[in-house]
Amino acid sequence: MINVNDFKTGLTVEVDGDIFTVLDFQHVKPGKGAAFVRSKLKNLRNGNIVERTFRAGETIGRAQIDNRQVQYLYASGQEHVFMDNETYDQFSLTSEQLEWELNFLKENMNVNIISYQGEIIGINLPNSVELKVVETEPGIKGNTATGATKNAKVETGLNVQVPLFINEGDVLLIDTRDGKYISRA
């Protein structure tokens, strides 16, 4: 059990049978009435973000999340197959469970799997990945005075806004948190 006064960003807690990670919190001490903690929580099972208010001093369950390194093997229809790097056990997740992550997953890529009491919740990607540009229009010379960008499609199907000097075949560093271009690799 953990006291809500000890909330920290990134802490995983169990509230009403669901597992949440704390995105943001604020301790409020009104002039009249009891103090409380206003928090923004992300549901790890479905990705929904909820705002909850707890009384100061209230205790809730702490969720112990396990992380293991796994390798992404291949896609088979709507199923995506992973292999545990230690035990070589294979398991699959659906496209619905990996909706955002599929923009960055390549075969043979190592990622961390998140599980809670044996239930696989999702995966953690590295903060950035290298992806190859497969389609982009050529940049127009002399059009760079304002830091212009163009659209580029990478090997996973993600569309990214990139500077005009990027060409097909270039390998880019892409931020997995927001899907934006960082630099050439």
UniProtKB/TrEMBL annotation:
Pfam families: EFP, EFP_N, Elong-fact-P_C. Pathway: Protein biosynthesis; polypeptide chain elongation. SMART domains: EFP, Elong-fact-P_C. It comes from Paenibacillus sediminis. Residues 67-121 form the Translation elongation factor P/YeiP central domain. It comes from the Bacteria. One of its GO terms (molecular function) is translation elongation factor activity. Involved in peptide bond synthesis. Stimulates efficient translation and peptide-bond synthesis on native or reconstituted 70S ribosomes in vitro. Probably functions indirectly by altering the affinity of the ribosome for aminoacyl-tRNA, thus increasing their reactivity as acceptors for peptidyl transferase. Keywords: Cytoplasm, Elongation factor, Protein biosynthesis. Belongs to the elongation factor P family. Residues 129-184 form the Elongation factor P C-terminal domain. It is found in: Cytoplasm. This is Elongation factor P. The keyword Cytoplasm applies.
